[in-house]
Amino acid sequence: MPTLYIVATPIGNLEDITLRAVRTLGEVGLIAAEDTRHTRKLLARYDIHTPLTSYHEHNRTAKLSSLLAALKEKDVALVTDAGMPGISDPGYELVHGAAEAGIRVVPIPGASAVTSALSVSGLPVGQFIYLGFLPRGKGDRRRLLESVAAELRGLVAFETPHRLTSALQDVLDTLGDRQIAVCRELTKLHEEIYRGPVSKALDKFARPRGEFTLVIEGSQKKSVTHSIDEAREMLALLREQGVGAKDSAAQVAQQTGLSRRVVYRLRHEPERRTEPS
Questions:
Q1: d(CA 164, CA 134)
Q2: Domain check: are 155 and 250 in the same one?
Q3: DSSP assignment letter at 115
Q4: What element of type H or E holds 230?
């Protein structure tokens, strides 16, 4: 029976591809690529002449049935522009469809921006949470960061150059001035890795260029992991006791690991809800 191969490709340096991946791409009957122009450069480097077809975010629905049909007759390899397919791209839908149809799915592992960034971050990341690309909108981005503010595990996220400054500012405002590793252009000619507090990262990358992977230190509060809801409960109790907004925000921030800015905003939520519309 034909097989769907999930093939990792280099995240920058074209030499970062496995011998198994090169062999597989040369032996399958068809390669489904996120961007065929990008993949052709890789195939030309290794003298691979396998037919290509596009499979990306905008044509995934139309192409899914044809790829599943092709898998009835020949092996197909799925590749993305960089790294492992099926993560932060539509590849998972093809994997799901193939598995549902009883087609064998085989991973061909290789380069990963996530694990590469983690390995050089210099941060304690034995456990981590992958956030993918941070939301484009400021409100959505801050809500996501607030939801993991008390998380003890490290955080990994992707960001584009035109949103990096805003994202770093939101990290500073919601998570506090934590340690961060900002990894720019991993494995490429202009690779750069910054390690230090978020506040200084903002100064360093005032005019960012390239693609970025962020590794953010987890909360350093080693006691109980407090959620946003628990912070609200603590604030309500302090309000009943007559503690002012500034002092209560400072106390709850200290106990939960949330930034004072976030806690102060939570402190005033009930007051905003009581205002007339």
A1: 10
A2: no
A3: H
A4: helix 228-240
